[in-house]
Write a structure and sequence with these properties.
The complex is a heterodimer of chains A (438) and B (319). Chain A is α/β, with parallel strands linked by helices. Chain A has 2 domains: 93 residues, Urease, subunit C, domain 1 (Roll); 308 residues, TIM Barrel (Alpha-Beta Barrel), CATH 3.20.20. In chain A, strands 1, 2, 3, 4, 5, 16, 17 and 18 form an 8-stranded mixed β-sheet that branches. Chain B is α/β, with parallel strands linked by helices. Helices cover 34% and strands 17% of the residues of chain B. In chain B, helix 2 packs across helix 11, helix 5 packs across helix 6 and helix 5 packs across helix 11. Chain B starts with a strand and ends in a 9-residue tail after the last strand. In chain B, 46% of the residues are buried. Classes of the chains: A alpha/beta (438), B alpha/beta (319).
């Protein structure tokens, strides 16, 4: 690892920065944690160099949706291990969801997360505060104080606010602080007892279904409440065609709504759920073939704003249970970009520019972060990736403390090669065939 | 990967099902003899572990094993390490370490035996998993039907009741459609999702009991599984019986030689009229009797032949 005060010259890469409509072969010079220059053949004697030949150099990826489990469930993940896994996935910033133990519903917990991240995480960690106290859905949390302490959005992720009146008040209140409201859209009465997407596979397995409408009704509710309050509303891990259509229509009307989709939802469907393997159990569940098709379309046509992982670590013993007892969620940092290549880029659905928008520019805008750009003077958060790099995902080598993924053993083409946060190389692939000659 | 065991009907080949039925016919006459004990499984140990209450299945498995000469141990979830917070996998690993030749398990979670089969070498026989499968029930149902009908192909079988929560319905759907029977499912719509039609082109749905019974060769009634969904699916037992209970007058629409089946336990006046349950064409007790022959056949084939089923490969991750 290099010192952040030291200069770093990234050479021979293809710079793709949609924030400046930039796509050119050039060098990037970093000094004191900031972008100092972008241009051809930059000379800087006695500077650390990083050869990016054959690679894309992009503004650092920002994950809008991650669970770092600290404080409270450090056996599954810590801010440090999660931060290292994020770096290995090419992410320079992650938004940490508040469903820790205790819940991040006050400034003290927010401070703790920020301090811990400063000391131990290689990447930037931006906490998301709870909407309600302990995410119980009764009373508003101390949103203003958490804002002062450093939260960038609010959400009761995983324990969504069912009370529409409270949600309306939260949106209204958050708009005063300019905070985006992120909601895990799930009508808990409709989904009660559900274990996987409602459809033939669930029926065949004898597992209770989670209907597509259980998501869409809450997406619609929140858009309507957002329209009444003027709050910015962001749909977390949108998974169904119905929800996407509602978002598309709201955007057409100019309402302030954005949405994210996870790599597992645009890659897998309910039919892929293997013989009661809990590594295929998550919320929202893997949806139908038609839902996945709609998500791919939305990613291509601009309806979907961001790709987010919903990285949700669970220790091995928690997933080695009967399907109905195992917790929901999978890890996602390290496979996100590769899955995007597999499903979106190499399949010709989206351009590299759009890929960078989905991973960096748009997430920065949604979270109100002064990042997602390589403009001179901006924080030197940079993701370098290689569209052709061939590799296999071995979860036993993961930086995460958890192993819950359905993608173990998958072969990939395309992936990150180096992650630079605040001017420091925080992760680098062991062997990058294109840039092996330094 | 193939492993010895019987987890469900879905992944069985027709020949395997035929093999069990043939073997069961060999054991049928034994049930009426005075001396019933054989030495086929002498020296073998079979553990029965039941995480869900059961009278007929548990007794039937135990008697089947004993008539074949095996030693049996029966564990019910109450009073075992389950109460001490041990995980299912740890409990079963512990039992497997005592080297039984097979483990017969009933569990309330769909897929519990499939999950275990990926980790255990000991053959597992599924005695019912949640709402998923109950393979020996479908096998004994097939044997009972074939005691009265020459073949399954082309038969019209009506399965009526709480389909969505029923493992008996699913196992029977797989078995009957593999052999070319026409299956008509009937129940209130919340208990009969449309996705059931995807099992096979030979499956249809109706919400009217008269329609289901018309022309039926076999009428299979199912219990409303109050323990799986509370009482929230239907207004009241009376309303349920009025629209979906099998009553005497319904039978006129069935074929004259139609038989009435029920996997038990029966709830008279809830899903089946008391007088219907006692008709000569009701074969409910024949099903129970055949249960022993079928389970003897399964144990015999499993422990003396190489009866196996495909199992998902184990994902080898470190933790």
């Amino acid at each position: 690892m290099s010192d952040s005060t030291q200069a770093l010259l990234i050479q021979n890469g293809r710079i793709i920065d949609p924030s400046q409509k930039m796509d050119l072969q050039a060098d990037v010079l970093i000094r004191e944690g900031q972008i100092a220059a972008v241009g051809a053949n930059l000379a800087s004697p006695q500077t650390q160099r990083l050869d990016a030949s054959g690679c894309i150099v992009a503004p650092g990826f920002i994950d809008l949706h991650a669970h770092l489990r600290e404080p409270g469930r450090e056996h599954a993940e810590t801010i440090e291990s999660g931060g290292r896994a994020a770096a290995a996935g090419g992410f320079t910033s992650v938004l940490a969801m508040p469903n820790t133990r205790p819940v991040n519903d006050n400034a003290a917990v927010t401070h703790f997360i920020i301090q811990k991240a400063r000391q131990q995480s290689p990447v930037n960690v931006f906490p998301v505060g709870a909407i309600s106290e302990a995410s119980r859905g009764d009373r508003l949390a101390a949103i203003g104080e958490m804002r002062e302490a450093g939260i960038v959005a609010i959400s009761d992720d995983g324990m969504p606010v069912m009370n529409s009146s409270l949600m309306r008040r939260a949106m209204s209140y958050a708009s005063g602080f300019g905070l985006t409201v992120i909601d895990h859209c799930e009508d808990l009465d409709l989904s009660a007892g559900g274990l996987m997407h409602e459809g033939y596979t669930a029926v065949r397995y004898g597992l209770a279904g989670i209907s597509a409408a259980s998501e869409a009704v809450m997406v619609a509710r929140n858009i309507l409440l957002g329209a009444e309050t003027g709050a910015r509303f962001h749909v977390a891990h949108l998974s169904t065609a119905a929800s996407l259509e509602i978002v598309r229509e709201a955007k057409r009307r100019g309402l302030p709504v954005t949405c994210e989709v996870t790599p597992h939802h645009f890659t897998l469907i309910d039919e892929d759920v293997k013989d009661y393997d809990a590594n295929y159990k998550m919320k929202p569940p893997l949806r139908s073939r038609q839902d996945r098709e709609a998500l791919l379309e939305g990613l291509a046509d601009g309806t979907v704003d961001a790709i987010a992982t919903d990285h949700a670590p669970h220790a091995g013993s928690e997933k080695m249970q009967e399907f109905e007892l195992a917790p929901f969620g999978i890890i996602g940092f390290e496979t996100a970009l590769a899955l995007a290549f597999e499903q979106l880029v190499h399949s010709g659905r989206i351009s590299l520019t759009r890929l960078v928008e989905l991973f960096s520019v748009n997430p920065a805008r949604i979270a109100g972060l002064d990042r997602g750009t390589l403009k001179v003077g901006a924080a030197a958060d940079i993701t370098i990736f290689n569209p052709e790099r061939r590799w296999n995902y071995d979860v036993n080598q993961s930086q995460s403390r958890s192993r819950n993924t359905p993608f173990h053993g998958r072969s990939f083409r395309g992936g990150p090669v180096a992650t630079i946060a605040a001017g420091k190389i925080v992760w680098q692939v062991e062997s990058n065939p294109s840039a092996a000659h330094e | 990967m193939h492993k010895r065991g019987l987890l469900g009907i879905e992944s069985l080949a027709i020949e395997q099902i035929q093999q069990v039925l043939d073997r069961a016919r060999f054991y049928q006459p034994l049930q009426a003899r005075t001396g019933k004990k054989l030495d086929t499984l002498l020296g073998k140990t079979i553990i029965h572990i039941f995480y869900e209450s059961s009278t007929r299945t548990r007794t039937s498995f135990e008697i089947a094993a004993k008539r074949l000469g095996a030693d049996t141990v029966t564990i019910t979830a109450k009073g075992s390490s389950v109460d001490k917070g041990e995980s299912l996998l740890d409990t079963l690993n512990t039992l497997a370490a005592m080297r039984p030749d097979a483990i017969v398990m009933r569990h309330s979670a769909s897929g519990a035996p499939h999950f275990l089969a990926r980790y255990l070498e000991t053959p597992i026989i599924n005695a019912g998993d949640g709402s998923h499968e109950h393979p020996t029930q479908a096998l004994l149902d097939a044997l009972t039907i074939l005691d009265h009908k020459p073949t399954l192909a082309g038969l019209r079988v009506a399965i009526i009741g709480d389909i969505v929560h029923s493992r008996v319905a699913r196992s029977n759907l797989h078995l009957l459609t593999k052999f070319g029977a026409q299956v008509v499912l009937c129940g209130p719509p919340p208990m009969l999702p449309q996705a059931f039609e995807c099992f096979s082109p030979n499956v249809s749905r109706t919400f009217h009991i008269e329609e289901a019974i018309t022309g039926a060769d076999v009428i299979m009634m199912l219990r409303v599984q109050l323990e799986r969904h509370g009482a929230s699916f239907v207004a009241s037992p009376n309303e349920y019986f009025r629209f979906y209970g099998l009553q005497l007058e319904h039978l006129q629409a069935a074929r004259p030689d139609a038989i009435v089946m029920h996997p038990g336990p029966i709830n008279r006046g809830r899903e089946i009229g008391s007088e219907v349950a006692d008709l000569p064409r009701s074969v409910i007790l024949n099903q129970v009797e055949n249960g022993i022959a079928v389970r003897m056949a399964v144990l015999d084939l499993l422990l003396t032949r190489n009866f196996s089923q495909p199992i998902e490969e184990l994902q080898k991750t470190g933790t």
